[in-house]
Amino acid sequence: MRKLYGVFFLFIICFTIGYSVINHTTYQYQISRDPAAVKNSFDLTHLSGESLQEAIHQKLVAKLEIIKSAEETSISVGHYSFVNSQGEKKLACREFDQVSFEFEADGSSVSNGKPTMEVQGRCDFSPDLLRTQPLSIPVARILGEAPGDGDFTTQNVYVKFSNLAEVWPRTWILKSIKLSHSKGKVQAVIVESEEVTQYLGHPVVITW
């Protein structure tokens, strides 16, 4: 009986220690979001120079996602970790605070050029760190207004239109993706439409 109590006591001690270690490790990961804990699938901290820039552009495009509903169209891009120019490990949305997309209307044009749409919002990452948080274009609200140059603002997204004609364009081609800092503290990352087509094999088009 004494031997049985000893085994049981030892089991309790091991279980308590093991649970404490696991709980502490999980808590640190969820709170700190340390880039060292980021999955290798988007960890670019081992790259630098031109190799890093190319990998960043590929990551942004590879995870690009567009979700449409009757009310809005949401767009997000890939997220990543890297080492910045100061040698610090960073998550992209900790280095940049803005993400923006520029679209050009397909087919239609006015005297000043083709209609353009700029979508801009805060750079935040998804819970799994794989993508930026989606920026939602309030399509239903936009189409309910008379066409013309101007802007629409929601809680977290700014949409600006230029060179609009008398009818809302219904097909938009992605011209660029941009990560930037609102105060210009770091050099922006820009992916042009040619690169998007190169990486995906086709242009990115949204229709309303």
Task: Explain what you see.
The chain has helices spanning 2-32, 49-62, 92-95, 139-143, 193-200, and strands at residues 65-68, 73-76, 81-83, 89-91, 98-105, 116-122, 135-137, 150-153, 157-162, 171-180, 189-192, 205-207. It is an alpha+beta fold and 208 residues long. The strands form 3 sheets. Strands 5, 6, 8, 9, 10, 11 and 12 form a 7-stranded antiparallel β-sheet that branches. A 3-stranded antiparallel β-sheet has the order 1-2-7, with no helix packed on it. The longest helix is centred in the first third of the chain and has 31 residues, at 2-32.
Topology:
Elements: H1 2-32, H2 49-62, E1 65-68, E2 73-76, E3 81-83, E4 89-91, H3 92-95, E5 98-105, E6 116-122, E7 135-137, H4 139-143, E8 150-153, E9 157-162, E10 171-180, E11 189-192, H5 193-200, E12 205-207
Antiparallel strand pairs: 1-2, 2-7, 3-4, 5-6, 5-10, 6-9, 8-9, 10-11, 10-12
Helix pairs in contact: 2-5
Which keywords apply here?
single chain; 208 residues; alpha+beta; 7-stranded antiparallel beta sheet; 3-stranded antiparallel beta sheet; 28% strand; elongated; disordered N terminus
Average pLDDT number: 84
Question: Beta-strand percentage?
Answer: 25-35%
**Cα-atom radius of gyration:** 23 Å
Specify the helix fraction band.
25-40%
Number of strands: 12
Give helix and strand order, one letter per element, not per position. HHEEEEHEEEHEEEEHE
**Main beta sheet:** 7 strands, antiparallel
Distance between the termini: 76 Å
Poorly predicted regions are: 1-34
**Overall shape:** elongated
Structural class by SSE content? alpha+beta
What's the tally of helices?
5
